[in-house]
Amino acid sequence: KEDLGSSEVYVFTPKGKIVSLPAHATPVDFAYAVHTEVGHRTMGARVNGRLVPLDTTLDNGDTVEILTSKSDTAGPSRDWLSFVKSPKARNKIRQWFSKERRTEAIEEGRDELTRAMRKRNLPVNTLLTPEALVGVADDLNFPNADAVFAAIGDGQVSTQNVISHLVKDAGADEVDEEVEQEVLPLKPMERKASSSSTGVSVKGVGDVWIKLARCCMPVPGDNIIGFITRNQGVSVHRTDCQNMIDLKNKQPERVVEVEWTSTKGLFMVKIQVEALDRRNLLSDVTRVLSDHGVNIISGTIATGSDRVATSQFSFEMADPQHLNSLLAAVRKIDGVFDVYRITGAKESAEPRLRKMK
């Protein structure tokens, strides 16, 4: 490799195209130099055919291949800002998080406003209409409803201020201050257990919003328990989920009994694969996953100094009962010495998934 300049490094794409980067650039800098979307979707990299960490320093003459995620939720990591060298990569990463933060602020603001209205026993569906939000945005000098939600999420506008405008614009009487400050207890409706697309029902509660917790990703066959969220829905966790254990200890009154009612649908599963780093390892693993009919959502990979490649994959599968056969197939891949499901449980509860419950 020739020294082609101390301030720049010249590397190659797999097709032989030369890419100029700042000295000490990394695979992430290379990815953003190729295309912004390639940078945003980066999940791993090969340098000269070998999987390397994303903060690896590139040398003149290296051939760099970027491994990207096809997930709709793929995006950069804030950690990348600590090692990228090119202004383009740094700016694009910051722009992405600025846009992401606005999206988060809008969602947080909407949730905060809804919770505040429910605490005051106000009719959310009646007051929180698109027309009413346009009126509030105009009253508060915001361009649109999303800007109002973002302002709430960022703490620039109080929910009380927005609620006052909603009530006033609706022509309703001002809500008594004491009633506004009252926090209503959660009261599950005494009805038959309700089924949902999640395949879970809540005992003694009907017409309730249910979601499977992403921290432990329960699937049919797991022992599960429910927790009433602030928006009066129910989040379903594995009983050994550490987050659920903490919630149960702090707020036992919000815990409800739930049960599986169906095994049909798509369920999210996350696994970790540990293997000796080698050429084509990642493609071999993803091929086996695809052969088992799962829809890969995201993946990450990192290689340690001991040449152990640790990768994690999140995917949807229609029948979690086939998970054991999938893990067995991955374990047969050359170089793989361990694979297990990640559940969010305590290590002592399920350090390695050898058997499905």
UniProtKB/TrEMBL annotation:
Pfam families: ACT_4, RelA_AH_RIS, TGS
GO biological process, one term: guanosine tetraphosphate biosynthetic process
Catalytic activity: GTP + ATP = guanosine 3'-diphosphate 5'-triphosphate + AMP
GO molecular function, one term: GTP diphosphokinase activity
Domain of life: Bacteria
Listed pathway(s): Purine metabolism; ppGpp biosynthesis; ppGpp from GTP: step 1/2
Keywords assigned: Hydrolase
Gene3D superfamilies hit by this protein: 3.10.20.30, 3.30.70.260
Domain TGS: 7-68
Domain ACT: 270-344
Keyword Hydrolase: yes
Family designation: Belongs to the RelA/SpoT family.
Protein name: Bifunctional (P)ppGpp synthetase/guanosine-3',5'-bis(Diphosphate) 3'-pyrophosphohydrolase
